[in-house]
Amino acid sequence: MLNEIILHPGEHREIILLNEPDTNWHIIQEANSTLLLYVIALPHPNDEVQWHTAITVEHKATGCKTEMYGLALLHSQQQHHLTTRVLHNVGGGYSSQLFKFVLDDESKASFKGELKIMPDAQQVEAYQTNRNILLSRQAEMTTEPQLEIYADDVKASHGATTGQLDDSALFYMQQRCISRETARKLLLCAFFEDVLRTLPNEQMQEDIVEKINEYIG
Amino acid sequence: MLEIKNLHASIAGKEILKGLNLTVHEGEVHAIMGPNGAGKSTLSNVLTGHPAYTVTAGEVFFRGKNLLTMSPEERAREGMFLSFQYPVEIPGVSMVNFMRTAVNEKRKHEGKPALSATDFLKLMREKKALVGMDNRLTKRSVNEGFSGGEKKRNEIFQMAMLEPCLSILDETDSGLDIDALRIVAEGVNALKTPHTASIVITHYQRLLDYIVPDFVHVLADGKIVRTGGKELALELEDKGYAFLNEKP
User: Fold this and answer.
1) B45, B70, B73, B154: which to substitute to probe chain A, counting the most A Cβ within 10 Å?
2) Which of A29, B11, B24, B131 is geometrically suited to a Cys-Cys bond with B2, CB 3.0 to 4.6 A?
3) Same domain, yes or no, for A55 and A95?
4) Do B76 and A187 touch (CB under 8 A)?
5) How many separate domains does chain A show?
6) Do A186 and B101 touch (CB under 8 A)?
7) A contacts of B49 (beta carbons < 8 Å)
8) A180-196 vs A202-216: helix axis angle to the nearest 10?
9) Chain B, nearest residue to A190 by Cα
């Protein structure tokens, strides 16, 4: 399903995609509009569920701001494939993306992030970060950042890492009387913390933490 | 309190401890000294149940129970505390959340109810004052961005919070200037009771000026090769470990 949205000049829009099945969004931002978008995939009863999410954001006029965050905790044979395209067509815009995935069992995920800054789009700031933790040897993460920068006066960066839960932190917590399961919960919530704290809705923060705890416990 | 009999342990197939014997009673302070690579840190890791080490022979009893079948968290809840040589940074886990979880897990093990938020904060305040821990530090994530001295002081703070019966201080003096060393040692001494015991692992004698041991053991090549009183530490400082290589 394709959702086409135009943010009018000065408009602020929040979009939260929580366990949404296949979706395709095309969002056009007019001058000084702001977008806050979340892609969240939490433990789901269907062990083989697959989510394909594609999001395109286009800055059509100056002064646009886009913030996108995502967190996913997948298990069994679940899959989550996320593609983002951010197109800075004009100068003076800002975009940031922070996506975090935790993969257990034989789950698979991918993040493909295209970031394009066109020749006339001077003084743009654009950031993209993707961090992932694999909880099992069979889990698989694929990351493909793709930056195309044609303007010369911009600030842009991207970074991607995939690792495991820190064993030395787990042992340290166990040595302080904390069970291994509780230590894993604390570390996973800590991993998601920088996404969680940006959520505009406190109740939602708590619900997500509870879902994560339920899964590990 | 602790009885180690003929302990053999290895890491990645390499034997490090080769028949270690040690008995620690309530109220005692034992210092373990020895050259690098003798097995000092292996001993603290094996006692606390670090998964990288394998015990290949021997027995360890802690407060009358078989230590070696317990998980690391069970050992901690029974009252064994390790002050880490290299305390771990845990970004995103706040000191308050970490300590509250730790204290309440221990209380649960002892059959006591969890502390209320008010009582917990009161306990934090008391113990911070006892070990001279800065308020600024307990507002941060666990050890994140702490200096070497701040990390060591945080270990002693955690020890004060958990009130262990056996504390193992693994090279607590490394990376400390003399003032920080004195403050940490004062904290350790303030926590000492007739029912607690400590094992102080150190390469240098200077910590033992502040934490005075009842026994000094020399660990070399995975075994305790000599035991004496506190004067042995001075002798080692003076003469070094060269005697270990002398043939009797």
Assistant:
1) B73
2) B24
3) yes
4) no
5) 2
6) yes
7) 174
8) 150
9) B92
Q: Please say which residue of A143, A164, A185 terminates a domain.
A: A164
CATH number at residue B40: 3.40.50.300
CB A99 within 8 A of CB A115: no
Give residues with Cβ within 8 angstroms of B12, minimum separation 6: B52
Rounded to the nearest angstrom, the minimum Cα separation between B248 and chain A is 41
Domain carrying residue B201: 2-241
Q: Is the pLDDT of residue B62 over 90?
A: yes
Is the domain of A141 the same as that of A184?
A: no
**B248 lies in a domain?**
no
Chain A residue closest in CA terms to B168 = A175
Whether residue B247 is contained in a domain is answered as: no
pLDDT in tens, A48-94: 999 999 999 999 999 999 999 999 999 999 999 999 999 999 999 99
Q: Which chain A residues are closer than 8 Å to B92 by Cβ?
A: 187, 189-191, 193-194
What is the SS3 assignment for A209? helix
Interface predicted TM-score of the whole assembly (ipTM), two decimals = 0.94
Q: Examine the domain organization and report whether A179 and A152 are in the same domain.
A: no
CB contact under 8 A, A172 and B87: yes
- For residue A212, the chain B residues in CB contact (below 8 A) are none
Residue ending a domain, among A125, A145, A164, is A164
pLDDT of residue A115: 96
Question: Could you tell me which residues come within 8 angstroms of residue B71 by beta carbon, excluding any fewer than 6 positions away?
Answer: A174, A180, B49
- Mutate one of A177, A180, A185, A189 to test the B interface: name it (highest B CB count within 10 A): A177
**Within this chain, do residues A65 and A152 fall inside the same structural domain, yes or no?**
yes
Is residue B108 situated within a structural domain? yes
